[in-house]
Amino acid sequence: MFWSAITAAALLGQSASAQNMLRFGCSQLTIERADPLVSPGQNPAPHTHQIIGGNSFNLTMEPAVYDPPSKSTCTTCTYSEDFSNYWTASLYFRSPENGTFQRVPQFANFGLQQDGGMTVYYMPYSAKNGKMTAFKPGFRMIAGDPTNKQNKYKPSICHRCLGNGEGFAPCDGKDTAELPTKYCPGGIRATVIFPSCWDGVNLDSPDHKTHVAYSNNGGLGSPNCPASHPVAIPQVMYEIMWDTGRYKNDAWYGNGKQPFVYSFGDTTGYGQHGDYLFGWKDDSLQKAMDALPTGRCANANCAVLKIQSAAEAMKCKKEQQVVEDVGKAGQWITQLPGGVAVN
């Protein structure tokens, strides 16, 4: 689940001193059909998301107006100055017997304590001489595309079958762009890696993508940002631990089949995607990024940031704004929320 700084340095051919990163857990904030980036103000949005971070998450979060640090009263994340919002699509088990759906719960990643949610990384792989520019207020971006139907984003978005032949570094050769078609006793880890280079001007773009770029045509970055996007930014990565190991039946797997579907109707996994909306308080993220090369800041133990207990983070919740049954607490539902068709 987590690789050490030194091993990652050897693997990626970068200096060990540059490999400190933030890695921390964020518990579940809410699960609902809301998406202030792609569908601002829309109630409901097209499909269900599982959302973490600051409790000011809202149906509309305008870049020039909405300030998460000033509007939030709590965050589900380890670092109490991080009121950003992070979200991905929910995953469902579709019963091969009767076609009903059960939302697949998430579990805490290795070494972390949390209630559902995700693991969040801020990585320095595109930094030059240890320098990166933290995101500015109003910044947001998206990785992946829910309409994608082919193996297009593998270096950046992938799935790992835990306990049945998993690899090492994120999205390596043993990970797959598609949802695994074999039983995974330890669950499925979905990884979403965002770009690490910025154009230095725009906080967003019409497609929420073109203001940022990958340095390596996708995947983990390098200190080689393109001329069009010359500013190195922290590389954000999500790991979502899906508890699929509870669904054990040999008849459900193999020969290209598996019983899981994302909330937007995708049974392949190619459409997995992640949304990011910056919300760190003041210059706290910049301080953390500046402290990475010094060793004062690493993973969930950063001397320049305020840390809250897992219990405090897990207390932070937000009631659904789009009130509907999304399959909470293991309940079975007859269709995907919103009546989304499975394809």
What brief labels describe this structure?
globular, five-stranded antiparallel beta sheet, mainly beta, 4 helices, 343 residues, disordered N terminus
Structure, briefly:
By secondary structure, the chain is mainly β. The protein has helices at 5-12, 68-71, 284-291, 310-315, and strands at residues 22-26, 28-32, 49-53, 85-89, 91-94, 101-103, 118-123, 140-144, 157-161, 188-193, 197-198, 212-213, 231-232, 235-242, 260-262, 273-277, 297-298, 301-302, 332-333.
Report the count of strand segments.
Answer: 19
Number of continuous helical runs: 4
Give the neighbour order of strands across the main sheet: 1-7-14-10-9
- Rg calc: 19 Å
Indicate the low-confidence ranges by residue numbers. Answer: 1-18
Q: What is the general shape?
A: globular
Average predicted confidence as pLDDT: 93
Counting helices, strands and paired strands, the structural category is mainly beta
Distance between the termini: 30 Å
Q: Please provide the ordered H/E string of secondary-structure elements.
A: HEEEHEEEEEEEEEEEEEHEEHE
**Fraction of residues in H or I helices:** under 10%
Share of β-strand residues: 15-25%
The biggest beta sheet reads: 5 strands, antiparallel
